[in-house]
Task: structure prediction
Amino acid sequence: MNVNVLGTIYTVGVGTEKTDPKLSTAYGYCDPSVKKIVISELERDPDSVQDLDAEARKILRHEIIHAFFFESGLHENCDYAANEELVDWIALQFPKILKTFEESGCIK
Ligand SMILES: [Zn+2]
Result:
């Protein structure tokens, strides 16, 4: 799959620790140098959340937010753009914010 991030196309893929060693330390990553996002193929285990699809979507949103910060020129010299807590908050809350925007008619 490809996604458009501020006019730049990023490829989005799913991998495992075996196919992509970077996934051994994270559930996903964004590599802006090659315009690539990869998320881990989540597997059920005793510690996993019940809804793995929802978790995968949240991880993908997180990595897409990183791509947006990078394509905005904020990736390297901006503390908040590299703040994982903020990126995760946006990834978690964005669907709710979008719903509120749509309900209020303040977009378009
Ligand atoms: Zn991150």
